[in-house]
Amino acid sequence: MKKIKVGMVGVGVISGIYLENITKVFKDIEIVGVCDLIKEKAEKAVKEYQIPKIYDTMYDLFADEEIDIVLNLTRPYEHFEVTEAALLAGKHVYSEKPLGATLEEGQKLVALAEEKGLLIGGAPDTFLGAGIQTCRKLIEDGYIGTPVGASAFMVCRGHESWHTDPEFYYKFGGGPMLDMGPYYLTALTNLLGGVKKVSGMSKVSFDQRTITSEPLNGTIIDVDVPTYVTGMMEFYNGAIGTIFTTFDVYQAQMPRIEIYGSAGTLSVPDPNTFGGPVLLYRPGSKEFKEIPLVFDYVDNSRGLGLADMAKAIQENRKPRANSDQTLHVLEIMESFQMSSDQGKHIEIQSEFEKSEPMVYGILKGVL
Questions:
Q1: Using an 8 Å Cβ cutoff, are 275 and 296 in contact?
Q2: How far apart (Å, rounded) are the C-alpha atoms in residues 236 and 130?
Q3: β-pairing, 257-261 with 147-155?
């Protein structure tokens, strides 16, 4: 079966692991070319990964008839413009998270993809990895009984101490919920199902941040978005979940994600990773016990969702990291802020149904 050809827009920090996996792990996709506003970045990637083409602009990339899927790795506030232009050019799109910087942007992109008969989906794809897929099987096989609740915590002190260009994390399209919330909410919805209603509270704890990493050490960032965001969710199945994301806390002793059931508790691994550990507690146990992972893709497998989209094109099916998921997560995140602003519960309008679970493959990199 012929490989699906990919063109990448944006050669930033996250691009390296995508290129590593596209060129060395996943067998059904092939990188054709790249482009970036800073041409030197694109030139470096072309040289390091032996990529055939480099484009002066993203529009040159979109015009290349050889490309089937555009991989959008631009900054969050640029996702809409890039994805829209790619769809208008007749390309399928796989985008880094979030789908758009606002729900309105996400809705427009989904509507355009449907109008054009194209696939649109995106990150995170960590929920397809061995860890969360194993957790899903444990829940669906009844190991914790009926799910009654969940909690999720993403606690850190921000990105200005290590990222080379961290300002966008504190601007439109950034913040801890839009940046890291997709990992946690995508995991939760794939474990418990869709969300019916939310409430939230948020604030800006510090009006300015000082970059301490190179090359911008000493630069002051004005903070434009909430950096302390909490939310509560009522899932379709009646379970109640809590999520806390912040860039304001130095350290904490909290689990990443826990799922609580009538017959036990499941400790879910970091949803920003693909592996374990998966820990299960059942009544009568003295402690949590580590459960073997029963699926593939334990290491950093970014691009797994892209590879699945390529397979979906070949098989004429819906990709697992699809737009129903990315739009539902985007609406949940925006609704937390809407709830905080309005002081009331917000009903979620988008519908979500879990995609098919992963199947353990015989050959690594072939879905």
A1: no
A2: 25
A3: antiparallel
Distance CA 192, CA 181 (A): 16
> Does a cis peptide bond (omega within 30 degrees of 0) precede residue 357?
no
pLDDT digit string (tens) for 184-241? Answer: 999 999 999 999 999 999 999 999 999 999 999 999 999 999 999 999 999 999 999 9
Sequence ranges of the domains in the chain: 4-122, 129-291
291-323: per-residue pLDDT in tens?
999 999 999 999 999 999 999 999 999 999 999
DSSP letter (8 states) at residue 204:
-
Counts for the chain of helices (H) and strands (E), in that order: 9, 17
Tell me which residue has tokens 């399928």.
Answer: 92
The residue whose two tokens read 């096989």 is 141
d(CA 84, CA 77): 13
Residues whose CB falls within 8 Å of the CB of residue 148, separated by 6 or more in sequence, listed in order: 238, 239, 240, 260, 261, 262
3-state per-residue secondary structure call for 340-363: HHHCCCEECCCCCCCCCCCCCCCC
Strands (DSSP E) found in the chain: 4-9, 29-35, 53-54, 69-72, 92-95, 120-122, 147-155, 195-203, 208-210, 220-222, 228-235, 240-246, 257-261, 264-268, 278-281, 289-291, 346-347
CATH H-level, domain 129-291: superfamily? Dihydrodipicolinate Reductase; domain 2 (3.30.360.10)
182: amino acid identity, one letter = P
CATH superfamily membership of 4-122: NAD(P)-binding Rossmann-like Domain (3.40.50.720)
Distance between CA atoms of residues 324 and 268, nearest Å: 23
